[in-house]
Specification:
Blueprint (H helix, E strand, L loop, with lengths): L12 H11 L6 E4 L3 H13 L7 E3 L15 H13 L3 E6 L16 E3 L12 H9 L7 H17 L1 H16 L4 H12 L2 H5 L11 H11 L6 H11 L13 H5 L3 H18 L1 H4 L10 H13 L1 H13 L2
Parallel strand pairs: 1-2, 1-3, 3-4
Helix pairs in contact: 2-14, 5-12, 6-7, 6-10
Length: about 325
């Protein structure tokens, strides 16, 4: 970058860091292939915070600098590009979202293909070390006992999400097997376009508890095309036998493995406040804060600096190059 003394310029500081520090330092043939640009940014920020050098180059499937760039990034093209790069002789490791792959028997067994610990990157929000900070932003609990009490109260939130999660999984099954007619599919897609928080705020519904409105709204809308939660359960039992919502015994597992982190992040502030405000014991913790810009804070700060699971994941990736 040739800049004469005294010249003025306006460049993105992050881009400069990325160019100088990462692109030049990463060995030429060692690549970590990821699905999206946010994966790249969080991984880079992790190494910045740790004051460590990247030992690999971060790439997307559509990176124009690759020999055979594809039209788009994303999981499917990452898998295709993984094979391309391996054929070209590169030492490539791919990092993929879990999504519903394990429920659909689509997980790939390959030491060079690694999955996030949870549904996707944003689900690291529910790792214990991060979630304690998140809850602290909602109410000022004073001890571990109060925090544990709050986790117990969240079990109702998890089960309130059950019908929404069923429809998300039904959509994925239908993409593969076309089991819904066009009217039913359109109905399901329209329902899940609305985030759970939007359903909770539908005051025209009969349920007093905002969480109960999620089920009420979904049942009402499914009834328009002669579907119901019970019928959806029956369809999934036939076409997705590995899925069992009630197998999860550990706190926060539903949030970690069953729903997109980006989706739940948009609804979580309202859900947490709803639980804290209606619980007399938790009210003593003093509802204090908000979770504005939750996803940005998660990506820029909490995952790179707090998450132990994310750190272990990157250590595993580094070893996979050997």
């Amino acid at each position: 970058m040739n800049i004469k003394k005294g010249s003025s310029f306006n460049e993105n500081a992050r881009a400069i860091i990325n160019e100088r520090y990462f692109m030049k330092k990463a060995p030429k043939h060692k690549m970590l292939l990821v699905e999206g640009i946010e994966d790249i940014n969080v991984i880079r920020d992790f190494y910045i915070h740790k004051n460590q050098k990247l030992i690999f180059k971060l790439v997307l499937a559509n990176d124009p600098n690759l020999e055979e760039p594809l039209n788009f990034a994303g999981k499917k093209n990452s898998i295709v590009q993984h094979e391309n790069l391996r054929t070209q002789g590169h030492n490539v490791v791919s990092l993929l979202d879990r999504d519903y792959d394990f429920f659909l028997n689509e997980d790939i067994t390959d030491p060079k293909i690694i999955y996030y610990d949870y549904f996707e990157l944003e689900n690291y929000l529910f790792e214990s070390s991060i979630f304690k900070v998140v809850v602290k932003n909602i109410f000022n609990y004073e001890d571990q006992e109060t925090y544990d009490m709050f986790l117990v109260s969240l079990s109702k939130v998890e089960y309130a999400l059950y019908p929404y999660i069923l429809l998300c999984l039904l959509r994925e099954v239908n993409y593969r097997k076309s089991i819904l007619d066009s009217d039913k599919l359109e109905n399901v897609l329209n329902i899940i376009k609305k985030k759970p928080a939007s359903m909770m705020q539908m005051s025209n519904l009969a349920a007093n508890d905002p969480l109960d409105r999620i089920l009420e709204y979904i049942q009402k809308e499914l009834g328009r095309v002669e579907l119901s939660i019970e019928k959806v359960e029956s369809i999934l039992q036939e076409h997705c036998p590995n899925f069992s919502f009630f197998d999860s015994k550990n706190s926060l597992d539903i949030f970690k493995y069953y729903i997109k982190g980006k989706t739940i992040c948009s609804s979580l502030p309202l859900m947490l406040k709803n639980e804290a405000e209606k619980n007399s014991d938790l009210k003593n913790g003093n509802v204090i804060g908000n979770l504005d810009n939750l996803i940005s804070r998660l990506r820029l700060e909490w995952i790179p600096t707090i998450s132990k699971e994310f750190e272990y994941l990157l250590q595993k990736i580094e070893v996979s190059f050997e």
